[in-house]
Amino acid sequence: MIARLPVSFFILIHVYLFYLIPNISFCDSQIADINYLREQSGTRPCGMGEAYTAVSDDIFGPNYNPAGITNIKNEEGALMFAGKGSSNMQTLWGYAYNTKIVGSFGLNFFNSQTSNVLSGTGDYSSQQDSILTLTYALSPAKYLSFGVNTKNFQSKSDGLEQTDTLYDIGTLIYPGIEGLSFGVSFQNTNGQKDDEFLSETIRYGIAYKQNIKGNSYLLADTDLILSENGKTTKQNFGMEALIDNSIFIRCGK
């Protein structure tokens, strides 16, 4: 028997500060050249500037830290479509279920279609990226959780096709201070080392959530992202405020 999911309606106010340009549902993480690794989807993580490694507690979380789906209480699903003009379209669907006995399982599919992509030769081309991700996470103790993604990746660009299987490994640590969490995620391991598209990265994150009287809270998260050679690729910072259990305000950079 599958329990019914509670339906809640929220007013979402997203404040995007990526290069001071409003950007709905698209993020520019500047990690790799393929669209999936460059543009993560999900209104909540994007609204927080992709500072999500130490939060990662919803269906969009596996893209940042697979350990986070242990925080889904029962089950959660999402279907999202986003367009940036006629040249960029993204589709994402996902589902996660917490068995509460043998861990949590998740499945999501991401597809991105982009035209007018500038290639290394200076020519413009079209590109389609898709990735199917299977997630498993377990929380052996209340202060610790682990998770792993298995990702089947496919990229097509002007008749050329590339496929690979990638793995993410992540952990979340709750040190015993209420509201404080640490996250680490190793992304895109076991890729083709000679391929510029598949960049291994490490994400470090720290988050703090302060509950406020009246079903409200303030959440802050900061991430440090390192490329495979140890060079700092990006630093993210994001905040989320919930007001009276009805209004979300998010900002990120």
Please explain how this structure is put together.
With 253 residues, the protein is mainly β. It has one domain (15-252). The protein has 2 helices and 12 strands, in the order βααβββββββββββ. The protein has helices at 35-38, 43-47, and strands at 11-16, 75-83, 88-98, 104-118, 124-141, 144-157, 160-173, 180-189, 201-212, 216-227, 232-243, 247-252. A 12-stranded mixed sheet has the order 1-12-11-10-9-8-7-6-5-4-3-2. The longest helix is centred in the first third of the chain and has 5 residues, at 43-47. The model is unreliable at 1-26 and 28-39 (pLDDT under 50).
Helix segment tally: 2
In helices, the fraction of residues equals under 10%
- Total beta strands: 12
Poorly predicted regions: 1-26, 28-39
What pattern of helices and strands is seen along the backbone? EHHEEEEEEEEEEE
Structural class by secondary-structure content: mainly beta
The neighbouring-strand order within the major sheet is 1-12-11-10-9-8-7-6-5-4-3-2
The CA-CA distance between the termini, in Å, is 42 Å
Main sheet summary: 12 strands, mixed
